Amino acid sequence: MLTVTIMLYILVFVMYYLGIDCGTQGTKAIILDSDSGELIARGYAKHDIIADDSGRREQDARWWIEAMTLAVTGALAKSGIDGKEIKAMAVSGQQHGCVMLDGQGAVIRNVKLWNDTSTASWNAALIEESGGVAGVWKTLGQPLPVGYTASKVRFHAEREKELYSRVKHILLPHDYINFYLTGNYLTEGSEASGTGYYDVNARVYSKTMMDRIDPSGILEQAVPPVYSWKRPAGTLRREAAQKLGLSEECLVAAGGGDATMAAAGTAAIMEGCCSAGIGTSGIVSVLSPVMGKNIDPVIQIFEVLDDKWLIVSCTMNATSATTLVQNLFGLSVTDLNDTINRAPAGSRGVQVIPFFDGERIPALPSAFGMFRNLTSLNCRQENIFRATVEAATYTMRWGFDKITASFPAPSRLIVTGGGANSSAWRQILADVFNLRVIGPQADEGGALGAALQALYLHRYIAGSTVTLQELCERYVRFDPSKEANPIPKNAEIYRELFASYKETIRREWGDGKTEN
After folding, report:
1. Dihedrals φ, ψ of 85, to 5°?
2. Sign of CA dihedral 313, 317, 320, 326
3. What residues are paired with 314 via a beta bridge?
4. CATH number for the domain harbouring residue 201
5. N or C, where is the chain less crowded by C-beta within 10 Å?
6. Residue 478 lies in a domain
7. Chain-centre distance for alpha carbon 349
């Protein structure tokens, strides 16, 4: 009787949930009204990035806390509600970063990020020591991309020995934010799955791989416990609650990696759906209750709720590539749609290889960008920019094809991220994938997914049997104006150009480094 009373109290009186998404370029915060289903307020703050030509991509972990504070307090100021009315929150975060803490919980070094390729040689050595790609799959149940945490740990252990000897905890970016919020060290399944030392089949850390990465044993002692979505990370520390303007009793859910949270926040975890996230990277993901067969070795597999897996392909270059070309031509954001539309499908023959930060799909961490087939007639701003958008989309399609070779093909794409704000890019996506494209009303898939996880956990604790899929059906709303359907003529053009794109890459970097 008491459980029922608590549940009814939550359903009737508890209305507000906070979702935070710490991405590469900035942190978003949204407040969800669970009664109306509306996102009543949003906040945002950007991050800097430390980069050089070696492939180094790093951030100071303090920037995430500062950005989160600005984003949350900004959202609260716009909402008109008292922050103490927020009953639960969760954090979505960029994956694969390496946050190293000492025994007092202080970060001892800038954080190498998911798109840091400076440790590529250490990653190659780990794969070789594991018996090649097949050996990695036998140990982990998935591949070991250069962006995963494993090679970063190996790099620090070998190149920064004195610093590494002080390490007591190794966390991922969203784990570190949870630590700041609650004082507890933990991670969750989708995040652990992206470290390169977690066996997704057995759902445990791989001692074999951890010993291979770091024979000293520091890594094995430093990894946090893995929490399920049904287990709270804790409640807010007093200092965190005061800075954010929230109650110390605010429940903090386990959160998760941005790919998983975005899949929840866009309803891509529903049957027949696939998420296509066009952000700094290009992420394609589908949820599967079963493990596929003969899975391509570049596909990533993340453990998620209720014994399911999120099957993911991740490119290195999406809006990161288009932004470079945008800045090259001095284009404003409002110019982008018109610029794309001034060129036809195929960009009058211009071909761009957008691997400005190396690439994961195909696995070419040392690759570089290229502009091809330029003539005095087609060397125009609109052709080059559209060709960059097309190329980023081809690479996402390449990953999609690798997924659907082993898992059921979806019937529709749910598009999210900064690139999804462009109707022209949505149409290119529909034509290249030859699928119907739809877009959610909210442009904060990762943050909304985090808010839904917080809502799910709060109700689960109260005894509710509601599923996350049921919450998606209720709270994820789609915008009819964001729908795009394939144009048959363009779909045929892109079918041929996509094949040409892959062939160009094979000729440039060799058949031995890529797969169909």
Report:
1. -80, -10
2. negative
3. 283
4. 3.30.420.40
5. N
6. no
7. 32
- 348 DSSP assignment: G
Helices and strands, counts by H and E, the chain: 19, 24
Residues of the chain with pLDDT under 50: 1-12, 512-516
Spatial distance between the Cα atoms of 477 and 69, rounded to a whole number of angstroms: 27
Judge whether 171 lies within some domain.
Answer: yes
440, 267 contact by CB (below 8 A): yes
The two beta strands, 187-188 and 226-227, are: parallel
Phi, psi of 503 (to 5 degrees): -65, -40
The pair of structure tokens assigned to 202 is 């057995």
37: domain range? 2-257
pLDDT digits (tens, 9 = 90+) for 78-115: 999 999 999 999 999 999 999 999 999 999 999 999 99
- CA terminus-to-terminus distance, the chain: 58
As annotated, the active-site residues are 258
Q: Is 80 left (phi over 0), alpha (psi -120 to 50) or beta?
A: left
| pLDDT in the model for residue 271 | 80
Distance CA 144, CA 284 (A): 18
Tell me the two tokens of residue 105. 């919980």
pLDDT in tens, 394-442: 999 999 999 999 998 898 999 988 899 999 999 999 999 999 999 998 8
Q: Is residue 79 part of a domain?
A: yes
Q: Which residues partner with 36 through β-bridges?
A: none
Backbone φ and ψ for 92, nearest 5 degrees, come out as: -100, 140
Number of structural domains, the chain? 1
- Tokens of residue 229, six digits: 């979505």
